[in-house]
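Action item from last week, closing it out:
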Amino acid sequence: MSWWEAASWGLAGGLAAGVLALMTALKAAGFKWPWKREEIWPRLCFYGCGLFLGALVTAAAHSQMSGAWPAFVIGAGAPATIRGLLSGVEVDIKLPADLPEALESKPANEEGISENAG
């Protein structure tokens, strides 16, 4: 299977997942549009990103696929799979030991904004 063929089936799988999410949102909103007019673009971006992920993941794995059905299934599950993979990623920020002292030594005006800020 070529990468573009796998990506096309992955796009179809992503579309299927998006349609299912839309159906669920419509039912939860009492069969009315679950957004206001100004809220449509973020939702379309969300669904577009799901389509993109479906196509991207299947294109990346195209050499290991034997047909259209695996590409479709991988495309449909790509957003949930990536979300699950990233849920195990932990970000640990190390702050310098002298940070509290550095913050206390800077004078602040009445609004709480540091006068030394550039």
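Closing note: DSSP finds four helices and no strands in the chain.
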